Amino acid sequence: MDKFWQSLILTFCVALGVNLGGSLVGALGAVITQRPPLKTMLELSGELKIWALVAALGGTFGVIKVFEAGVFGRQFHDLAKQLLVVCSAFLGAHLGYWIILSLGAER
């Protein structure tokens, strides 16, 4: 498998895992502190979306470097790849949010 596709899948899964794991473990903390776990889990999932995105991207300035080199150096192929990586991280974090919403939805 191409290294780029591996990077996309890994980024997606890391963002998904940060959102799901953080929300579920946060709900466990809510149970221990006698707060409503479902409400806490739903709140945490929404708040963790941006942090899942940051964690999946590695917290580095690689995105900015590629953006600068892509725009000013006219390397639009690398810029498009980096935008796909960012979109992959966003989709993973958002899917985690939707999964938590569907778990917490009242029927």
If you had to describe this structure to a student in words, what would you say it looks like?
This protein has four helices and no strands. With 107 residues, it is mostly helical. It has one domain. Helix 2 packs antiparallel against helix 4 and helix 3 (62-72) crosses helix 4 (76-104). The mean pLDDT is 85.
Proportion of β residues?
A: under 5%
Oligomer category: single chain
Number of helices: 4
| Count of spatially separate domains | 1
- Give me the strand/helix succession: HHHH
The total beta strand count reads 0
Low-confidence stretches: none
* Shape assignment: elongated
Main β sheet profile: none
Q: Give the distance, in angstroms, between the N- and C-terminal Cα atoms.
A: 42 Å
**Whole-number radius of gyration?**
17 Å
Q: Class by helix and strand content?
A: mainly alpha
Mean pLDDT, to the nearest integer, reads 85
**Helicity range of the residues?**
over 70%
Summarize this structure briefly:
By secondary structure, the protein is mainly α.
Keywords:
107 residues, elongated
Question: Layout of helices and strands, plus pairs?
Answer:
Layout: H1 3-32, H2 37-57, H3 62-72, H4 76-104
